[in-house]
Amino acid sequence: MSELPVARVEPTFPFCQVGLDFAGPFPVRGEDCGVKKVYICLFTCMITRAVYLEIVANMTTTSFLAALRRFIARRGTPTVIQSDNFRTFKQTDAFIRSLFVGKHAEKFRNELVCRCIQ
Prior knowledge:
Oligomer: single chain
Number of domains: 1
Radius of gyration: 15 Å
Low-confidence stretches: none
Strand order of the largest sheet: 3-2-1-4
GO molecular function: nucleic acid binding
């Protein structure tokens, strides 16, 4: 069995280092409208393996940043957000990489730099 990464065994606060994944789409029925699709943004603590879920309306930069801000408001600012190449994280990895290109790339970079997130 291989060694765990230092980030996984180093004592620290919960949700200081998180993994990120998306699940969905899930059909949701609202009171005022028909069925619409929503996604779940999963923040997984790399130390305790605790999970924090945020519902997002779509997979856009704006929705993700809103979910990230809500996560930070409740759990504090993580020092590392990681989306690795496990099969379940491949779509998230592609989504995160897409945030660094395009018209909202600068906005996304500024948000991470402002909060000292790697």
